[in-house]
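Amino Acid Chain and Its Fold in Token Form
===========================================
Purpose: to set a sequence beside its fold so the mapping can be learned.
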Amino acid sequence: MSATKEQKLEQMDMKRDMYQMIINGLREDSASGETYATYNPATGEPVAKVAKGTKEDAERAVEAARNAFDHGKWPRYPVGKRARILNKIASIMRARFNELVELEILDTGKSLAAAQGQVNQAIEDFEFYAGAIVGHRGSVNNIPGAFHNYTEKEPVGVCAQIIPWNYPIMMAAWKIAPAIAAGCTVVVKPASLTPLTAIVLGEICVEAGVPEGVVNIVTGSGSEVGNYLVEHPKVDKVAFTGSTPVGKDIMEKASHTLKRVTLELGGKSPNIVFDDADVDAAVDGSLFGIFYNTGQSCEARSRLYVHEDIYDEFMEKFVEKTKKLKLGNPFDKGTHLGAIISRSQLETIHGYVESAREDGATIVTGGKEAKVDGYEKGFWYEPTIITDVNHDMKAVREEIFGPVVVVMKFSDEKEVVQLANDSDYGLGSAIWTKDHARATRVAKQIQAGIVMVNCPFSAFPGTPFGGYKQSGFGRELCVETLDLYTETKSVLSYFGSKPINMFGI
């Protein structure tokens, strides 16, 4: 197909009225011709129209990715050449940093500080994997006799990557960067609510010199486009970030063709404050741990356990600072919390709060929809602290995915470790203590993929991110991620002077 002027991926303003899919290096409308509108959660107003992808579009994208992998140059490029292109992607993103931040805010309603941090990490992801892939190689193994064995790392193939709405550009980078660094080709399915920056990232990849068919972005529903990709026989791997129920469904569907699967799923992460902790640091870290990104984070520290000896002091400061958090214009540097992604999610959050209230819990602060001047049509929820809870409550056991934290007292280390591990999830966790031996001891006992010690941050490029139990499996954001996008081929050779005749015939 020859590209029309409209289809050619020349640089254009990121903020525009219409966003097409990226298939085989071209901008493409849906095969059905249909579009849908995306909305700014802060205002409730439409942002843009997006091509509404179909199975036919997903099929075209898979074929493009398959052809690019089987017959194209990308998997056969020297790693140094792939690394240069990844660095070029990062360079273009950095040059257009402010535009990406603005678009991410319009797409999600999140605060300026959150969007800036996430766009910056998305850039750093490409820079990290540009360096990591150069050192990602096989090994030579010592074996007896006149034999020689070495291994090679080869790209796994065509990868379907399904990303969530809470971190659109960052999750897209977490998926795309290691996959293409390893030599794979990808079909990315962004969340329907927040597809804009993922589409733009696909455009930037092409602009940076990624060959046609290597990075494809197909918008549309998960039930149609997502399921089609998961079940497609020409897709070799599925990487998904999202809810645990959807992850289970993807795992089942992918098993029919024995696809490789990595899943980064839900969480209900414990945050433990011991009696010897720096209380002020623990308060500030706990505030960030639950209210960052408006609580819409899979590793949000949403179960807070505070030692009984410092409980009153901690809670006084924690509640006071929570009440000072500012909701408002996402572009204002003074805004701490942005909007909830949708009316449906807001109602889900409030349903959990009401269930806690009905179970006898105390709503210390918050607990209702927020009214923000100038943003009356947006979706806002007050930062909420709930006490007098126990592990039988729905609000304590299930992922709320909003700015809601449940708080409990504990008396000793053994008790709090049992409470922390009393969950179907095992993604993040946090420990606040000045006792390094205790920190090491407790960290080893907690069943979670991430343990933050006296630190509010859960991830930097190079640090493994992933979970235990029903929080999924596989690790992202690290060198080990490249192993998830490669096959290990073992080559065994014989160099002896005499032929091998094991049967002696």
Q: What stands out?
A: The chain has two domains: 19-265+471-489, 270-453. Residues 19-265+471-489 form a domain with the Aldehyde Dehydrogenase; Chain A, domain 1 fold (CATH 3.40.605.10). The first strand starts at residue 18 and ends at 19.
